[in-house]
UniProtKB/TrEMBL annotation:
Species annotation: Halosolutus amylolyticus
Domain of life where this protein originates: Archaea
Family membership noted in the UniProt record: Belongs to the NAD(P)-dependent epimerase/dehydratase family.
Name recorded for this polypeptide: NAD-dependent epimerase/dehydratase family protein
Lineage: Archaea, Methanobacteriati, Methanobacteriota, Stenosarchaea group, Halobacteria
Record region (Disordered): 37-60
Database matches in Pfam families: Epimerase (PF01370)
Biased segments, Basic and acidic residues type: 37-55
InterPro entries the record matches: Epimerase_deHydtase (IPR001509), NAD(P)-bd_dom_sf (IPR036291)
PANTHER family in the cross-refs: DTDP-D-GLUCOSE 4,6-DEHYDRATASE-RELATED
All copies of domain NAD-dependent epimerase/dehydratase, residue ranges: 4-224
Amino acid sequence: MDTALVIGGTRFIGRHLVDDLLAHGYDVTIFNRGNHDDPFADDDRASHVEGDRTNDSSLEAAAETVDPDAVFDCVAYYPKDVQAATRIFADCEAYVYISSGAAYGREEIPKREGETPLEPCTPEQAIDDSNETYGARKAEGDRAVFAAAERGVNAMSVRPCIVYGPHDYTERLDFWIDRVNRFDRIVVPGDGTNIWHRAYVEDVASAMRLVAERGEAGEAYNVGDRRLVTLEEMVDLIAAQLDTDAEVVTAGPRELAAGDIAVDDYVLYREYPHVLSTAKLAALGWESTPLEEAMARSVAAHLESDRTGREHGPDREAEERVLGILDTF
């Protein structure tokens, strides 16, 4: 494969995907609405086609103009998006859809492709735009990929868990980096051992390319760091990259109540462990970036940006009340 069309491609996962494709010699075209700054505007290796991916005519025009070997769908949030794309790009050598670990419908450790059932999706959920239906919509997108493969389309899916790294507009990891950078004592909800599987963004990008090149039609591939760490260990990783000491102070619901805080007010906290098996992807030859290296790049990007993530968690004044209560025990 030589040519790639990236639907999306200027913000987070798509941006890193374009970088990865260019680094591997692909002729890349980005298709989006042009609502965000294009980091590749001055890069002669990348072309740009403006259009709305929810408009089938725009997608059809892009398919005819670009005639890509591979299509990477970074912004398909509704099942109908996947259904339309797999029809329009049916003749491509590969169509890769970004699904999500949230598509899984049962809590088990680890969640495995083809074994752990997916979320059901009602017709009402399929067109809803709330966070509550995100996993169901992604699961229905997966089923659209499987149906397309049965029609002979070389369509595949990747399912990342929580994605982090440079240019992350969700600022979930930024909240924790900001905390460690500013304070010596870091409040961690629960007992610090909770695990919410995370995936470094560059690894998600390389996984998408590898799935396009080596994956099998109708298959889904989980993506996540090969080495998992607890929330407390993540704080320690951040502190090491900032060359600082951070005392982790764990607090359960009872202690957090002193600051009118709930455990799930914290980003990247999840009571039940969320773990994805990545063995299937690794069998294609994929490897993840060592955690220390991934965190070093993430911390450096945070320090160079104006992101703080502070609005995604409790304010420090509330945490100080919690720390005050804990210090009296």
